[in-house]
């Protein structure tokens, strides 16, 4: 099969998954497996690859997503234990005392937590830090979890530009410069992005207010900032009716959670290992009884198994696309159809198209497959490779965590209880707009020129 045909097969494979998901025909795991199976059969029947080679592709793909699946499994159990033990109820109580029924304040708080949490450049850990802490508050204020996801991914997309972030390092390696040098050039665009992220929280907080969020949180006896004594009574009542509540362990649970979060940022060990240890300690501390341990695990097993199966299935899908070279051929097709007259405007063009392309290409395929081809194309028109790289890094990063080919996206949607299709529908146009603003900032500051 020719390279062009292989690229077309790749586009059709991704299109099939998007169609199955957006039309509610199949859940993500089935969509990934179905598309991957059909593509695998085509590759084998056409003699492009042998069956054992396809099996190796799948093995490598699943191996790539296995750590994230493991991470999700034990993180769900850990935060589930903390929630059932009542730790987050106390935190919510304190936060509501601070912001009361101020929906906009909660939205801004979400953005700030996501910005701080993403200093380590890990999307998975940021979701794990932000969503479990904020989701209960969103539910109590009747705020949509899709808004929580939108605010998170906007902040994370901007913070992901740090020099130790994967995309910046990849782009720098392709261009042949130090990651810090590349970052220093795009810092003004990142600064604009941070402002836009905070404005996103304010705007969407007000949108939630207009749709009625926070209206039922106004209780009868207010004590500053809209806080009510009834709230304490509500939490105390919930603790009494909850066999899993462990109010006496609140301080210990807080310390354990803080140690876990600090470990996520600083310890050079696999993230899933930290959650394995944390989960084990949380169970022993709060439920030193075999029957209760079984109950608590079964209580959260449905969500854990559902998302873990999705991640493993995504591994099959990504393995077929990446290891077979389909994504590389897709990148070559996109580069070949670019009209020559648009060559000098390549950084602007790729910046505008980065968000839609992010839905099709994983990080490695985007920077190691598409970027080198576009740099070669730009060289023919005198385009500075660094400008092309900056445009691709900044504009693409904005949409990183709405992409169905980025495993961390499934972790975030799973924690928030949001379907991937709903996340994409609610975030796509807004994120595209944020990306456009960052691109415009690059043009205004003279970072991107033509």
Summarize this entry quickly.
With 450 residues, the protein is mostly helical. It contains 19 helices and no strands.
Description:
It is a single chain. With 450 residues, the protein is mainly α. The protein contains 19 helices and no strands. It has a domain at 102-121 and 130-212 and 338-450.
Number of strands: 0
Using only C-alpha atoms, the radius of gyration works out to: 23 Å
Which stretches are low in confidence, meaning pLDDT under 50 for 5 or more residues running?
219-231
Largest sheet: none
- Anisotropy-based shape: globular
In DSSP terms, counting alpha (H) and pi (I) runs of 4 or more, how many helices? 19
Question: How much strand content do the residues show?
Answer: under 5%
Distance between the termini: 39 Å
Name the average pLDDT. 83
Series of H and E elements: HHHHHHHHHHHHHHHHHHH
Approximate helicity band: over 70%
Which structural class is indicated by helix and strand composition?
A: mainly alpha
Features:
mainly alpha; 450 residues; globular
Outline the secondary-structure elements.
Elements lengths: L2 H20 L5 H18 L5 H34 L2 H13 L3 H15 L5 H18 L4 H15 L6 H10 L3 H32 L18 H13 L8 H17 L4 H16 L3 H34 L2 H11 L9 H13 L4 H17 L5 H13 L9 H10 L3 H25 L6
